[in-house]
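step 3/5: co-fold with shikimate-3-phosphate
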Amino acid sequence: MRKIILLGYMGCGKSTIAKTLSRIIRIPFVDLDEYIEEKTNLSINSIFEKHGEIYFRKVEHEAFLELLNSSEEMIIGLGGGTPCYANNHELLKGENVVSVYLRASIETLFNRLSANKSKRPLIANKNDEEMKEFIAMHLFERSFYYNQAQYKVNVDNKTIDQVVLDIVSILA
Ligand code: S3P
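step 4/5: write tokens
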């Protein structure tokens, strides 16, 4: 069954947009980070702290494969780094997959993330200036992987409903 995959940098709105999309098109939404937390019984922060990022990427890849191989139709919200490790980007073009990159500018990401960073181990300890620089560099490095998505939707200056409508018209 079809899998609709939303991807993009931390703070681009994947989960919020996926929840509204799920309500409108009546297809269940699974957040990959939450799925990993349930599967391991650990928060994303504790996985990073206890086992390190490489271990997290391994678990993330396995969890992504599990969801892709399940027989149900679903919307999957990836973690910001998912497409960039373990050749996960190649899975964005698979059969029965519709992948959508939610593209946001550095400014949008910075504004959203500076208010909400404690649950994100990669940026939790950075001050504003460090964070802006980190986002700019990281987004540049990751763009290649994000651009492997079949569709791209800009989210800057749009409401959640506008972005959801853009995705609904892609799916039509
Ligand atoms: C990460 C993004 C997070 C989470 C982990 C690593 C990343 O997901 O998977 O903290 O590498 O960008 P969100 O994009 O949902 O915050």
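step 5/5: annotate
The helical segments are 14-25, 32-40, 44-51, 53-69, 106-114, 128-146, 160-171.
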